[in-house]
Amino acid sequence: MTLTIHEQGGLLDSEIQLRIDEATEKQATTLEQKLKDHRDEIDRRLTTTDQAVRNVAAQTSDLKADVAVLMASDSRQTELLESIASNGDKWHEDDIEFRAVLVQRVSKIEVEQTELATQMKLLRWASGTSNAVLKAACFVLNNDTVRAVLIFGLLLGIAHVMSPALFLLAKRLLELAR
After folding, report:
1. Which string of DSSP letters, residue by residue, matches the chain?
2. pTM value?
């Protein structure tokens, strides 16, 4: 007669399996919560970045409006005419300097907008990656090893290609946090 594990002072196979299933479910719940928290943090940072882009766009719009007001104002026109009458060369140099400053300001704003757009792309990529990790974890929990290995392999390849961009993302996020 064969003794059961229970008779030998241990747990039944079904009890062992039940505890394994409970531990797996608890681990999956914990992992899903961590991924949800991570996704919420990414969404918060995306919102902050979107607000920064809107602020830069508003600054650009204000700058364009200020330029239009300066060019159209009667007092500015009068000053320009007096300057031309008194010293044409001096006015020309001032005008060139004024335009150069405006071009520099607009160029700086465009560079900032480009950097913010790059940051947004990287954050969206990170969010997509976290979703892929969540799916891979679900496949692992559902014993779908082939799909999980494929997703992890794809993520490893993407991480290898994107690692310089990830360092740039981390640097930008630290700058935003200051």
Report:
1. -PPPTTTTTS--HHHHHHHHHHHHHHHHHHHHHHHHHHHHHHHHHHHHHHHHHHHHHHHHHHHHHHHHHHHH-HHHHHHHHHHHHH-HHHHHHHHHHHHHHHHHHHHHHHHHHHHHHHHHHHHHHHHHHHHHHHHHHHHHHTT-HHHHHHHHHHHHHHHHHHHHHHHHHHHHHHHHH-
2. 0.33
